[in-house]
TrEMBL record, chain A:
It comes from the Eukaryota. Residues 94-174 form the S1 motif domain. GO terms for biological process: CUT catabolic process; exonucleolytic trimming to generate mature 3'-end of 5.8S rRNA from tricistronic rRNA transcript (SSU-rRNA, 5.8S rRNA, LSU-rRNA); nuclear mRNA surveillance; nuclear polyadenylation-dependent rRNA catabolic process; poly(A)-dependent snoRNA 3'-end processing; TRAMP-dependent tRNA surveillance pathway; U4 snRNA 3'-end processing. The keyword RNA-binding applies. Keywords: Exosome, Nucleus, RNA-binding, rRNA processing. Residues 1-23 are annotated as: Disordered. Its main location: nucleus. One of its GO terms (cellular component) is cytoplasmic exosome (RNase complex). The keyword Lipoprotein does not apply. It comes from Collybiopsis confluens. Belongs to the RRP4 family. This is S1 motif domain-containing protein. Gene3D superfamilies: 2.40.50.100, Nucleic acid-binding proteins. CDD domains: KH-I_Rrp4_eukar, S1_Rrp4.
From TrEMBL, chain B:
InterPro entries: ExoRNase_PH_dom1, ExoRNase_PH_dom2, ExoRNase_PH_dom2_sf, PNPase/RNase_PH_dom_sf, Ribosomal_Su5_D2-typ_SF, RNase_PH. This is Ribosomal RNA-processing protein 41. It comes from Collybiopsis confluens. It comes from the Eukaryota. PANTHER family: EXOSOME COMPLEX COMPONENT (PTHR11953), EXOSOME COMPLEX COMPONENT RRP41 (PTHR11953:SF0).
Length: 292, 256
């Protein structure tokens, strides 16, 4: 045999809870965790548990009757299902999610939308609200003037409607709160830092509105009055599909950029974003401001 | 050996003061500085330094490059003109660069679970910053780390190491000086299964010596694996800790 005198052999097992457990009880260790529900980190190639007792979920695969992690992240268990949630990854769409996206391409009867996912999302012409009545048949003339609704580079907020056979998602903007975005700034964050909330439209008291897209795109814009956004009967196509910003005064501009910067700072420390944290941070940052 | 420098002296030390089986210092940085990449890693083995950015899985740029059943893995290698002692600019079509990227591709093909992302594309950009032997090994190790960081499903880590043989004594993790003089092999292992993803030689090696240094490289791969695992774990802990302390939502319909 060979000698490895100069090697310092690092410990083989790492665990957050108990740093000094030996190799041998690794399996038992995982079993314990699976019972206790405490946080466990894992990385590709790490054996989690036996495939006979547990089912494999996302982020795992089975080899040799063992459930093995395939991504870096947190191990989660629901009854007998073991999944690994990646610490950092692209957005995994689910039906009903609110997303913010950017048009990348205009195609016949559809738009391609970049939504930070593994493929561009698709927004069909039939799933947007068109001028002149919400429930209206799509005409050929609509198809010819698609660019007047959404152009390449436009930002929009939409909801995930369904999936296509190949796993790409289909969006819809058939609600008055969805549609083209203006009067603001985009912030991009890792999707895992955005939690599902009751409402993803947040109004901060500093005159700034936020749209927290579950795909990690956040739209920070000037506050829009409730009645203007949901203009009931008077669905004003001019306003909804306008690409021109309203007049934004200096204090609102300052507030928008302050909120965007706060998001960047919080995210760089991987702090999950909620309205309360953002509000606290905003007030705190104002307090720190010292006028000379 | 015609070299004027002693590869392995009578005391059993190599030209840079290492022992036969000693590896060079491994430095790993997994936190990107202002890069928008999904996964990032800078890794150095001694004076060889490589930086890798991973983008994706994302929409494929060209429709002709998409596969309906798996993701297209695109690897581009760049070697900085200042990376070696002799300044040399290598273009995109350079044979050496194409060879490295092709080798990387075949090394990672069995490891990346690309069938989970049909019609998408995974871009891997490898940038060589400094060269001092073991270029391929550094590229492979850095790419593994960047992929793991990007949250791309891998069946296992891939850990590569170069080993060579000086007359009858095997050496590990060769520097450029040793690499130029000795017959050497680069071996990439998957530590969990013990499978070998890559064996490559650019020199002639006596068949009797092969098994010995091949085994040795396999062992060394496990040591490198432990270092890589530690780096990945540190990063994941730092990313996850604030999310824990600020209260995770109860597991259930709120969670995904």
């Amino acid at each position: 045999m060979f000698e490895f005198t100069s090697f310092r052999r690092p410990p083989e097992t790492f665990s957050v809870s108990s740093p000094d457990n030996a190799d041998a009880d690794m399996d038992e260790d995982y079993e314990d965790f699976l019972e206790s529900g405490e946080t466990k980190l894992t990385w590709p190639g790490e054996s989690l548990t036996s495939a006979q007792d547990y089912m494999r979920g996302h982020g795992t695969y089975v080899d040799n009757e063992q459930v093995i992690a395939s991504v870096t992240g947190i191990v989660e268990r629901v009854n007998k299902l073991i999944t690994v949630r990646a610490a950092r990854t692209r957005y995994n769409p689910e039906v009903g999610d609110l997303v913010v996206g950017r048009i990348t391409e205009v195609q016949p009867r559809r738009w391609k939308v970049d939504a930070n996912s593994r493929q561009d999302a698709i927004l069909m012409l039939s799933s947007v609200n068109l001028p002149g009545g919400v429930q209206r048949r799509k005409l050929e003339s609509d198809e010819l003037q698609m660019r007047t609704f959404f152009e390449e580079g436009d930002l929009l907020v939409a909801e995930v409607q369904s999936f296509f056979g190949d796993g790409s998602m289909s969006l819809h903007t058939r609600s008055l709160s969805y549609g083209k975005l203006r009067n603001g700034q985009l912030a991009t964050v890792p999707p895992i830092l955005i939690r599902r909330l009751k409402s993803h439209f947040i109004s901060l008291p500093c005159g700034v509105d936020l749209i927290l897209g579950l795909n990690g795109y956040i739209w920070v814009n000037k506050h829009v009055k409730q009645n203007e956004r949901e203009g009931e009967e008077g669905f004003d196509a001019e306003a909804v599909y306008s690409s021109r910003n309203d007049e934004i005064d200096e204090s609102t501009r300052a507030a928008i950029s302050r909120v965007t910067n706060l998001i960047t700072v919080l995210v760089s420390h991987s702090i999950p974003l909620t309205d309360t944290i953002l509000l606290d941070a905003y007030d705190w940052s104002l307090e720190q401001e010292c006028d000379p | 050996m015609s070299s004027r420098i002693e590869i392995l002296n009578a005391g059993g030390y190599r030209s840079d003061g290492r022992r036969q089986y000693e590896l060079r210092t491994i430095n790993i940085d997994l936190f990107p500085q202002g890069s928008a990449a999904d996964g990032f890693a800078t890794l150095s083995h001694g004076l060889t330094q490589v930086s890798v950015c991973v983008f994706g899985p994302r929409e494929a740029k060209l429709r002709s490059q998409t596969f309906h059943d798996r993701a297209n893995v695109n690897i581009e290698v760049g070697i900085a003109a200042f990376s070696s002692s002799e300044r040399r600019r290598r273009g995109r079509g350079d044979k050496r660069i194409l060879e490295i990227s092709q080798t990387l591709k075949s090394t990672f093909d069995p490891v990346i679970q690309s069938s989970l992302y049909p019609r998408s594309q995974i871009d891997i950009y490898v940038q060589v910053l400094q060269q001092d032997g073991g270029l391929l090994q550094a590229c492979i190790n850095a790419t593994t780390l960047a992929l793991a960081n990007a949250g791309i499903p891998l069946t296992d880590f891939v850990c590569a190491v170069t080993s060579g043989v000086h007359s009858t004594s095997p050496l590990l993790d060769l520097t450029l000086l040793e690499e130029n003089d000795l017959p050497n092999v680069t071996v990439a292992v998957m530590p969990r299964s013990g499978k070998v993803s890559l064996v490559t030689m650019e020199t002639r090696l006596h068949v009797d010596r092969f098994e010995e240094i091949f085994r040795l490289a396999g062992e060394a791969g496990k040591i490198i694996h432990a270092e890589m695992k530690k780096a990945v774990k540190d990063r994941t802990e730092r990313l996850v800790a604030p999310m824990q302390s600020l209260g995770r939502p109860a597991t259930g319909e709120n969670d995904y």
